[in-house]
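Design request, tokens follow.
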């Protein structure tokens, strides 16, 4: 088993401060009307926060190639599932709703 590099405590503190700044930025961006770009900005900030956590706190930066492949496969799987959810959500309006039941019509029993 290969020895893992020792990450200085200062690195963790800097990443933590960066995450706090990004949280404040996310909160500030929520109060600014950017039109359709609100979601894009929020997802961009969230992606940066995710990468900081993955690379530094989960030690993906100093891990072996198999761990990198596993992380990429997990991200691909997540994107695939999100894509399928959005495909289902956007295609729900393609099939019209059936006609409502008419309560005034008499029963058609023989």
């Amino acid at each position: 088993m290969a020895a893992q590099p020792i990450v200085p405590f200062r690195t963790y503190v800097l990443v933590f401060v960066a995450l706090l700044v990004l949280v404040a930025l996310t909160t500030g961006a929520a109060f600014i009307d950017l039109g359709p770009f609100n979601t894009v900005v929020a997802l961009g900030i969230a992606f940066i926060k995710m990468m900081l956590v993955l690379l530094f706190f989960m030690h993906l930066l100093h891990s072996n190639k198999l761990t990198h492949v596993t992380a990429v496969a997990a991200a691909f799987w997540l994107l695939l599932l999100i894509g399928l959810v959005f495909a289902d959500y956007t295609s729900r309006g393609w099939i019209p709703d059936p006609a409502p039941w008419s309560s005034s019509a008499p029963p058609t029993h023989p």
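Comment from the thread starter after seeing the answer: thanks! The mean pLDDT is 89.
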